[in-house]
Amino acid sequence: MPIKIPKQLPARDILEKENIFVMDEERANTQDIRPLNILIVNLMPEKEKTEAQLLRLLGNTPLQVNITFLKMETHESKNTSKYHLNQFYLTFDEVKEKKYDGMIITGAPVEKLEFSEVTYWDELSKIMNWSKTHVTSSMHICWGAQAALFHHYDIGKFELSKKCSGVYEHTLLNNTEKLVRGFDDIFHAPHSRYTDVSIEAIENHPDLLTLAISDDAGAYLICSKDGRHIMITGHPEYESCTLQQEYARDIQKGLSIAVPENYFPGDNPEKKPPHKWRSHANLLFSNWLNYYVYQETPYKWS
To answer: Which residues are in coiled coils (predicted)?
Structure first.
């Protein structure tokens, strides 16, 4: 699909070099169709990298999509320039009167904190409450998934004895759900987190479905029965080098961190890691956009 993004957005050059169809406002405005409006609440520290990762996956269907990036007013980013944020991001006050077909809430490096200790928790809670009446379907990634499970379903998180970092095998539990249509019974996905959620608590909740789990990484893909909330505890949007960069960063910080599991060939950090989850990541985003957003959203919000 063509993604409608600003001409100056740095991710545009990256995507065009990868032959991903992007479209600027001028051309999009000449097309007589109803595009999907997707709001991305980007909580990741290196926002420009996350922008490219998400736009790459959102650009793999025939649908036209308008993207709006949202920043937290109650948090000052240390890794992204104010110029970039001011040019490409809006605040909640600037979007709260609008309706969106879909919303993505990313992960954030705050999982060791209690939710109430996160500086922007009240603001994010307000956004999640607002989404109940202003968004057709929301996708929540990693810490964003844990935040949604806690806020909407009162399911908390717990700290792991060591960081869950690597690329893990996952087993599909329910192949009748539209979100996993076309998935293999066994597939790979990357994880990078210090906390987890209880599979038992999710399975015992009357409003939730567990769609895929990993013996090593726990619950991976959770869906509300009404399709309004998709929770992904891993990072399907990651590039093949992302875990490698995180590992090098942690080593440079002097952290006692293990080599990401099932990632480097022969567990050798000097070797280039293969991208083993690309196809399922694309299928996951495509299914969400088609079945949970496009097929469910009204042509005219009222």
So the answer is: none
228 marked as binding residue: no
152 is catalytic: no
Which residue out of 151, 191, 235, 280 is catalytically annotated?
Answer: 235
> Does 34 carry a binding-site annotation?
no
| C-alpha torsion 79→246→105→43, nearest 10 | -20
Q: Which of 139, 107, 121, 115 is nearest to 230 (CA)?
A: 139
Residue-wise burial string across 55-94, b where 16 or more C-beta atoms lie within 10 A, e elsewhere = bbbbbbbebbbbbbbbbbeeeebeebeeebbeebbeebee
Q: Is 237 a catalytic residue?
A: yes
Q: Exactly one of 142, 152, 170, 188 is catalytic; name it.
A: 142
Pair of tokens at residue 73 = 């007013």
Q: Which of 48, 237, 246, 280 is catalytic?
A: 237
Q: What pLDDT score does 302 carry?
A: 65
pLDDT by 10-residue block (mean), the chain, 302 residues? 64 66 54 81 95 91 89 90 92 97 97 96 98 97 98 97 97 94 97 97 98 98 97 98 96 92 96 97 95 88 68
| 271 marked as binding residue | no
In the annotation, is 142 catalytic?
yes
Closest among 62, 69, 68, 59 to 33, alpha carbons compared: 62
Closest by CA position to 290, among listed 56, 58, 50: 58
